[in-house]
Design goal:
Chain A is an all-alpha fold. Helices cover 82% and strands 0% of the residues of chain A. Chain A has one domain (3-260). With 553 residues, chain B is α+β, with helices and mostly antiparallel strands. The chains are: A mainly alpha (261), B alpha+beta (553).
Chain lengths: 261, 553
């Protein structure tokens, strides 16, 4: 069976987990926004600030780590969330590494025009005639987009799964073997690409699309619907991606078993 | 009818320069100017100059300043102020000034008029007429106008006063101004007649944070107002000297006045020489520093840029007043590849006329590759020499020589005419067609230059045009269908010269696109040398486009 279809089927059979992702992420995000507004004039406010920060960070880590581990072969979501409790520090370390990598890509992409100008300036004249400045800009921007949304997450998520599953032992031989198996798979990357398009590009299109509405209420309704649809797509793509990563990151015995079946 | 047409060689114009001095009763200096393989031999030239005095070297550098082809605010000031100062100093020293005084007067008047025209409404000056006012540029002009006024020239009082008001406002507005720049602003105000003890004290308090250049400027401001603290500053400055048996200099790797990384040693040393010449005229550092300056004419008979050359002239001119280089009595011989090309006897009388002997060698007198230059001196006194070889290189590495930090691309588009119905009937509109194939006389071509890179200041772009083309200055008369976003006027200044377009950009970040139009006039096959971009005050950085061949049938 196609890994993407298999992953989608897994998500379909785990609707509660999908719902949890759909609802809990915005709640944690809202708490995070509230945390930013809490003043620190009194001790109790400082205490609340610390507690809230802890809740948001741990909640987010637990939710994502549990989801990844569940799709990597745990029987139930409950068992998965239980098993990742003691691995959250390792998973947080991975999240930090991922954030650093994405920040690096982001800082490079700020110079996208600079790279595009340079690349075009060194193209041979015959080739340059067929590559306009805007085409070169688009190509370089696409490259950075792919780095940010496909290559870096595609390379690091399998490692995140191993760290959520095994803690820091995920950096041992077993973890790296599972990582190598995933990223070397020819079936893995098409799935990541499709999910990045569905989870990032399509929502961006929905948000950027402004249908012609004559009334303000119509515009407001359109905006709510478009944002809802964008969120739906983004969450679904994310959950399916964790399912894909989980499917490829299962222990070799489980993978072998599935192949046999 | 006879017409003289200049023939501009194909390639990227480059130069190699050497400078030095010979002291003692006799001596010889050996230098090599090598024209790289792959350069057009007919484009080679070599100039060798020998002179018995620092004054002679100054006059050669003045020649560079007065013939520089562009005229931004700084270059306009640098083109005539050094002349005023040098002429006055030579007169004071009873040294004959051989320049054309009528021509000099004309240049000074034209320069002053241009500066008045460039002054902005806020009283300040920018790099060009239409950009933002800058503190340094304004200080440079105010200081220059003050010195021109002291030199006996009429200066528009309101222009000077508005500039002074701008600078005083800047001192109040920018409380955290770089101490070096603050010292320069205070120095400029003092030079122009405003000696405010509060401003001097404020700058003096920040002397601990100043570079050697800032200290020199502060010292000069204090000295001009007869403030005793100038001696203290000069002492501090002397402690920063790098000195050996023969030479002394003040190193600097950053231009704090214009804010970019650059070997600013010559300017710093010149300003230090200027201060020490006034405060400690007997300092043993002075002849050593003057020698270092003359030996570090990195472009042959001038320094790295117009600003640097002007600053060094100011410093050396002050040194002339205290030095007594009047003991020349030697014969100078210059040999190129073993053949004598110049012999000149210098005497005390020559030092009184700031004489220099210059020889210009043409390709037939030069070897295609290495040229060995021997400068021989026999007799007493010091000989200063410089050699500058110029050539046009067609080396591949110089074409399309681009870096991520600075790059340039040139694209040609043919303007294809069509018609479109407008509110006033049918009109001609053009669409842009990337150029391929041949052109015909009468065709209009749009040239797009895209410069990319990091952050730069004072960029200059030079783009040669095909020999059979003429500029169309009124590009606004051409209506373009679906006008692209690069069809704009984002430059600080655009100039059309006979053989090239020159575009200037005061501030640059990441990317900027420029364009101009030209009309194809003559049939033929024309090679177009690469366009180039360089930061004008950091000439060691250079990027180029590829070359083109344009065929007109």
């Amino acid at each position: 069976m196609n890994p993407l279809r298999e992953a989608m089927a897994m998500v379909w059979s785990s609707k509660r987990l999908w719902l949890l992702q759909f609802l809990l992420n915005p709640v944690l995000l809202a708490l995070g926004v509230w945390w930013l507004t809490i003043p620190e004039a009194h001790i109790w406010q400082l205490g609340l600030s610390v507690v809230l920060a802890f809740v948001v960070v741990v909640g987010m880590l637990w939710l994502q780590a549990g989801t990844l581990v569940y799709f990597a072969g745990e029987q139930t979501p409950g068992a998965a969330f239980g098993s990742v409790r003691r691995k959250l520090v390792a998973f947080a370390t991975w999240v930090l590494a991922m954030a650093v990598c994405l920040c690096l890509v982001e800082s490079w992409s700020a110079k996208a025009y600079q790279y595009a100008s340079y690349l075009r300036s060194v193209l041979p004249l015959a080739l340059r005639r067929h590559v306009s400045e805007s085409q070169m800009d688009s190509s370089v921007n696409l490259l950075f987009w792919a780095l940010f949304w496909i290559i870096v997450p595609g390379l690091l998520l399998p490692l995140g799964l191993q760290m959520a599953k095994r803690g820091f032992r995920g950096l041992g031989n077993g973890g790296w073997r599972a990582w190598a198996r995933t990223v070397a798979s020819r079936e893995y990357w098409p799935a990541v690409i499709v999910l990045a398009l569905v989870g990032v590009s399509l929502p961006q299109e929905f948000i950027g699309w402004v249908p012609k509405m004559s009334s303000v209420s119509g515009q407001a309704a359109s905006m709510v619907l478009r944002f809802l649809a964008a969120w739906l797509l983004a969450v679904t793509a994310w959950v399916v991606l964790t399912s894909v990563v989980g499917r490829f990151g299962r222990d070799s015995s489980q993978v072998g078993g599935e192949s046999a079946s | 009818m006879e017409l003289t047409l200049p023939v501009v060689p194909f390639g990227v114009k480059l130069a190699e320069a050497k400078a030095g001095s010979i002291s003692g009763s006799s001596g010889q200096a050996d230098e090599t100017i090598a024209f790289p393989a792959g350069t057009e031999p007919s484009s080679h030239s070599l100039d060798v100059s020998v002179t018995p005095s620092v004054a002679g070297t100054i006059l050669s550098a003045l020649q560079y300043l007065t013939t520089y082809p562009y005229g931004c605010t700084e270059q306009t000031m640098s083109s005539f102020l050094p002349n005023i100062i040098v002429a006055k100093t030579l007169a004071d020293l009873h040294i004959e000034y051989k320049g054309d005084k009528t021509e000099l007067e004309k240049k000074i008047r034209a320069g002053l008029d241009r500066l008045y025209d460039y002054q902005h409404e806020d009283g300040g000056w920018g790099w060009w007429k239409d950009d933002e006012s800058q503190v340094f540029m304004t200080a440079y002009v105010v200081s220059g106008l003050g010195q021109a006024k002291s030199g006996g020239y009429d200066v528009k009082p309101d222009a000077l006063q508005n500039g002074q008001t701008f600078l005083q406002g800047a001192l109040k507005k920018y409380q955290k101004m770089r101490p070096d720049l603050q010292a320069y602003v205070v120095y400029a105000l003092v030079q122009s007649g405003i000696a405010d003890s509060g401003q001097l004290n404020s700058a003096f308090e920040k002397r601990g944070k100043m570079s050697a250049q800032g200290l020199a400027l502060l010292g000069l401001a204090l000295q001009t107002t007869n403030d005793n603290r100038a001696g203290e500053v000069a002492d501090a400055l002397e402690k920063l000297t790098k000195v050996d048996d023969a030479q002394a200099y003040w190193p600097s790797q950053y231009d704090y006045l214009m804010e970019f990384e650059f070997d600013d040693g010559p300017e710093t040393t010149a300003l230090a020489v200027k201060l020490i010449s006034q405060v400690h005229p007997q300092s043993p550092l002075l002849p050593k520093a003057a020698l270092w300056l003359v030996d570090h004419r990195d472009d042959g008979y001038y320094w790295f840029s117009t600003k640097q050359t002007a600053m060094v002239i100011f410093g050396l001119t002050e040194y002339l007043k205290t030095s007594h280089e009047l003991d020349a009595d030697f014969t100078a011989d210059v040999l190129v590849n073993g053949k004598p090309v110049l012999t000149r006897k210098f005497t005390r009388a020559d030092t009184m006329t700031a004489a220099a002997a210059v020889i210009h060698l043409t390709p037939d007198q030069l070897a295609a590759g290495e040229n060995k230059i021997q400068v021989r001196k026999s007799g007493g006194g010091r000989l200063y020499y410089s050699a500058r070889g110029e050539y046009y290189s067609t080396e591949k590495k110089l074409f399309q020589s681009n870096k991520l930090s600075l790059n340039i691309t040139r694209d040609y588009y043919r303007l294809v005419p069509g018609t479109e119905k407008g509110s006033e009937g049918e009109k001609i509109v053009y669409h842009l067609d990337p150029l391929s194939g041949t052109l015909a006389p009468g065709d209009v071509v749009a040239v797009r230059l895209t410069v990319g890179g990091g952050e730069w200041r004072y960029l200059m772009i030079e783009d040669p045009i095909p020999a059979g083309a003429e500029f169309l200055e009124r590009d606004d008369l051409y209506e373009i269908k679906d006008r692209p976003d690069w069809w704009g006027y984002w430059f600080s200044r655009r100039e059309f010269h006979d053989d090239r377009a020159a575009i200037f950009q005061t501030w640059f970040n990441q990317r900027q696109t420029y364009f101009y139009l030209m009309k194809i006039v003559n049939p033929g096959r024309f090679r177009v040398s690469p366009a180039l971009v360089e930061p004008m005050y950091q000439p060691s950085v250079l990027s180029t486009t590829d070359a083109l061949t344009v065929e007109v049938k």
